[in-house]
Amino acid sequence: MRRQVLTALLIIACAASVFVAGCGKDQGDAVVARIGRVNITESELRAKLAELPPFTQQQFGGPEGMIDFLEKLVEEEVLYQAAENAGYEKNPDVVRSLNAVRRRSMIQAYYKEQIEANVEVPEEEVEAYYSEHDEQFQRRSRIKFRHIMTATRSQAAEVKRRILAGEDFASVAREVSTDAGTREAGGLMRSIHGGDELPNIGMDSAFIEALFEWKVGEVTEPLQSSKGWHVLRLEEKEEGGTRPLGDVRDQIVQSLRPAKVRERYESTLEELKRRMNAEINESVFRSRPHTEEELFTMAQETDDPLKRLNFYTELVFSYPEGEHAAEAQFMIGFIHSEELNNEPAAMNAFRRVLEKYPDSDLTESAQWMIDNMGNENPDFDEPGAPSPE
């Protein structure tokens, strides 16, 4: 079910650009759907399908899948045009949502272009970090080799003779090696580091360390491990040590950049506040113009859920240990849940009842509200005291 919902959201997210583009199709590009004034061409449909994640694209494979995808886009456009014809572009909730999206998009664009894009990490700071944290950039010695394992030393000596005589190492390994794990791969082992062990073929850390004495391309003498005799040829070898600055510069920049972005953000914000004369009147929140009883009474007497929410919030803020604090905290959650349809805020408010007022009679009701959030709830005669029966 979750994947189906995600698929629907992805389709709807990309559909609008499909239909806008559909008004100007290329000559010869087949029109696969018409919805009122909007045409969708085959190339537009395929382009939009290609933008979906791979797991979603798989659901629309083949001709039947393409038709199914197209039907979903048509369904979305039909609903959009119906909403447009009914004047929903002027609906207060729609306007509010569009304004919120516009506001967030503008802030994000400003942050990206005016703050992030103007941040650079000076080279001297990169070099200083590299010098002061060289332990982070140590590279362990590494080798990669092929080996042929035999039961006896004489067999290993014969293997070396054949290889030095010109036979292919991998071919000999496939023919005679007793190591089933690498035989079919021509004896090729994965890369290993100094101090590693390969217990499956009897090579302890001392055995591995000794291999670093050999040169790349060199065929070793028969070497004994706890599992048998080996002839090896080093394929790759990389000495340990500190990685060059050029190899880790980008890593260092990415490590230092967030702090630089934060500094730029804070300085820009302070300058903007100064330029716009931004002020906060803290006295409104720090004073106590009403008693606890006054706040509780005002909350109960008003029909406006936002005003009630403000009164209950002020009560909890000003009198966190007061006689009505637990009930006010519960009502904050109840108003968010039942009147404002803000489930995340409601969940947080009910959890605070459990955390701050564990001995309250309302903890059971708060837990019930959390457990049943989103379900069809019964009407409550007394909103502060729901009955989960």
Low-confidence residue ranges: 1-27, 377-385
CATH topology of the largest domain: Chitinase A, domain 3
Number of helical elements:
17
Main sheet: strand order: 5-4-7-6
Q: Which CATH-level-2 architecture of the largest domain? A: Roll
Number of strands: 8
Shape: elongated
Descriptive overview:
- The model is unreliable at 1-27 and 377-385 (pLDDT under 50).
- The protein is an alpha+beta fold and 389 residues long.
- The chain is built from 17 helices and 8 strands.
- Strand 6 (223-225) and strand 7 (228-238) form a beta hairpin.
- It has a 4-stranded antiparallel sheet, sandwiched between helices.
Question: What's the layout of helices and strands?
Answer:
Elements: H1 2-21, E1 31-35, E2 38-41, H2 42-50, H3 54-57, H4 62-85, H5 92-115, H6 123-132, E3 138-139, E4 142-150, H7 153-164, H8 169-176, H9 180-183, E5 192-193, H10 205-211, E6 223-225, E7 228-238, E8 241-242, H11 245-275, H12 283-286, H13 292-301, H14 305-318, H15 325-338, H16 343-356, H17 363-371
Antiparallel strand pairs: 1-2, 3-8, 4-5, 4-7, 6-7
